[in-house]
Predict the 3D structure of the following.
Amino acid sequence: MFVRPEDDPRTDGAGPGATERQVLVTYLRDQRLTLELKCAGLDAEALARRAVPPSNLSLLGLVRHLAGVEQFWFRQVMAGEEVAGRHFRPTGELGSEFDGVTADPAAVAEAWETWRAEVAFAERFVERAPDLGLPGAGGDEPVSLREVLVHMIEEYARHNGHADFLRELIDGRVGQ
């Protein structure tokens, strides 16, 4: 197990009296914490390792990818901010955030710092939103904050499944 149950920062839901917002925010928070737990205790080399050749997936690549996903959905689509480009996609091509992964501690620190900054932006945005029906201010198709939160839970859940396999191949540790 990655963490003893008594030390696990995740919850078992928002509780029976929770609002819809509290439920969605709690599940997304727990998925974000799961990503951090899957990567905990690994050095830069292990985080950058492509554990399932020929795939370019790595734990560090997932962190970089999810930083860009957070940026896209919350900054661009919901807040309508103009950004120069998606984080860690120098070529702009889908998946290029996985190609540029290196076993450099500075690159690992940058990825975590960027991801945490985007998560903090998203959390502030959701906290300040008047309701879950709030439409996004950017993007091609109208989308509500509710839809974005559900999509983000799905996005993290899918990639945390990848992280489970990657971590097990790196050092044999399996998640709970």
